[in-house]
Specification:
alpha+beta, 5-stranded mixed sheet, 12 helices, about 65% helix, elongated
């Protein structure tokens, strides 16, 4: 009986909030009528986008309430209302989410009265279920109906507020436009970095190498010792130029990924880190044994881990870090954790931003948790087919 009462009380709270929202919706119909009349008269067309934004907030509150009750988040899909008044009005009218919200609001005028049915159930339930459960030790039959009303309210709201396929497609297109722009920006920055490294490092060394060899050829007949010293310097410059080229190649695609796979490459990265790094693996194997993610996914995961460890060594003040690689049914998961001072700020540098762009280009996600005082946890999910 106690459990039944607690569930009925929780359902009552849900229905009371629903009743308050329904009452607000009844009042809001006046705003809708005024907006419709003003829009038809053109004079008040500027009110339409603001009214649509208000409806979105009301519908969002209902989505959140239904999600809390059912335990399943109700998604939303809206086109942003930006630009001039004309553009905002056009977007508000054409957005499929506007029709979805308006349809829900009209239906809510009807099923928003469900909380009224709860009022007679409480006194009846306390009497009937009190005898039925307290004396006869049977299962309650009246008070659970209050939970059924809450279930019905949440179910109808979920069905009516769920975005249409057209709206979800529009949001998805917008996301792809943004990730494409980010990927292009990241690609451009990477090309400029490679060009700068080649120009300032390798090219300068090769020019100096050519000059040393030319001077050595001129001095060879009259001063063999000086020519030999110049050739030794030229050999040193050639080795340094090769080292610079290897760094550039590793930045494009680390050869160790091809040779040892992601797990082996990450273990080598951890061994060369300034921190004491612990690597744990779930569902992946070293080398070429077992399934591997696509090369682009492995490269993105490798660069995320390398950037995270570099940032931790430079800024966190930590002396150790943990890296976790896991194979999921839908892709690859990466988690890097350090016990440093925390407070990582994405606006403070290009590292985290570049990481997000690289992952977003593969339709992945990055979650950064870094409260002041630590720890800092970077979690990445990269979708792929194994």
């Amino acid at each position: 009986m106690r459990a039944t009462l607690r569930q009925a009380a929780r359902a009552t709270l849900h229905l009371v909030v629903s009743a308050a929202m329904a009452f607000g919706s009844y009042i809001f119909v006046t705003v809708l009528l005024i907006t419709a009349i003003a829009t038809a008269a053109v004079v008040g067309a500027f009110m339409l986008p603001e009214t649509v934004l208000l409806i979105r907030r009301i519908a969002g509150a209902k989505r959140q309430q239904a999600g809390v009750w059912t335990g399943r988040k109700v998604p939303e899909a809206y086109q942003p209302l930006t630009g001039t008044v004309r553009e905002r009005v056009r977007t508000a009218v054409r957005d499929p989410g506007t029709l979805t919200d308006f349809r829900w609001m009209v239906a809510y005028y009807a099923y928003g009265t469900l909380p009224v049915l709860m009022l007679p159930l409480w006194p009846l339930g306390l009497v009937v279920d009190g005898v039925w459960c307290g004396l006869l030790r049977r299962r309650a039959v009246v008070l659970p109906l209050i939970s059924r009303l809450a279930d019905l309210d949440a179910h109808w709201s979920t069905v009516l507020l769920k975005p249409s396929p057209k709206a979800q497609l529009a949001v998805r297109v917008e996301e792809l436009v943004q990730t494409r722009a980010g990927a292009i920006a990241a690609h451009g920055a990477e090309l400029r970095r490679i060009e700068r490294d080649l120009h300032d490092g390798t090219q300068a060394r090769l020019v100096s190498l050519s000059m040393r060899i030319g001077l050595a050829k001129r001095a060879y007949d009259r001063d063999p010792e000086a020519a030999r010293k110049m050739l030794d310097d030229a050999q040193t410059l050639a080795e340094e130029a090769l080292t610079d080229l290897r760094h550039v190649v590793r930045a494009i695609h680390p050869p160790i990924l091809t040779d040892r796979g992601l797990v082996g490459a990450v273990r080598a990265l951890a061994a060369g880190s300034a921190l004491a790094v612990t690597v744990t693996v779930d569902g992946l194997t070293d080398g070429h044994d077992g399934p591997r993610a696509p090369a682009a996914v492995e490269a993105a995961a490798y660069f995320v881990i390398a950037e995270s460890l570099t940032n931790a060594a430079k800024y966190s003040g930590a002396d150790r870090a943990d890296v976790h690689l896991a194979r999921a049914r839908t892709g690859l998961r990466v988690r890097v954790r350090d016990e440093g001072r925390g407070g990582a700020d994405e606006a403070g540098g290009s590292g985290l931003l570049g990481m997000r762009r690289r992952v977003a280009a593969l339709d992945g996600s990055v979650t950064v948790t870094s409260p002041v005082g630590g720890p800092t946890v970077i979690e990445v999910e990269l979708p792929c087919v194994w």
